[in-house]
Amino acid sequence: HSVVRNALFCLETAVGEKENHVYTKALMAYAFALAGKEEKRKALLASLEKEAVKKDGSVHWQRPGKEPEVDLPYYRYRAPSAEVEMTAYVLLAYLTTQPAPSQEELSFASLIAKWIGGQQNPNGGFSSTQ
């Protein structure tokens, strides 16, 4: 369809820009995964992996210039909704590939899922609206 083709052309043009925000890269990686553009998906995921926060056996992404987490006893830090959302989009990009994600991609995805699971509130929900 011409609308989808034009939208993908717009995204392919935008991917070449130097200063793409982490959230933008996460959304584009998922969009290219859905469109079956494997090379673009892999390139964006490789770029995102360089910006990942790897901590306590889990992986997530955060906004640039974010304040450091407060480490207090009896307090569990919960990430802002934007960070939960962008990390979830990266997870979707890892899992949305044809024919299927590689074992390496699945292993990395499990580290992302671990972090997302840790963001659940006591009722099983998240701070994110997505």
Automatic annotation (TrEMBL):
Domain spans labelled Alpha-macroglobulin-like TED: 2-130
Superkingdom field: Eukaryota
Any one GO cellular component localisation term in the record: extracellular space
Gene3D superfamilies assigned to the protein according to its UniProt record, in alphabetical order: 1.50.10.20
Pfam hit, one: TED_complement
PANTHER family assigned to the protein according to its UniProt record, in alphabetical order: ALPHA-2-MACROGLOBULIN, MACROGLOBULIN / COMPLEMENT
Protein's recorded name: PZP protein
Taxonomy of the source species: Eukaryota, Metazoa, Chordata, Craniata, Vertebrata
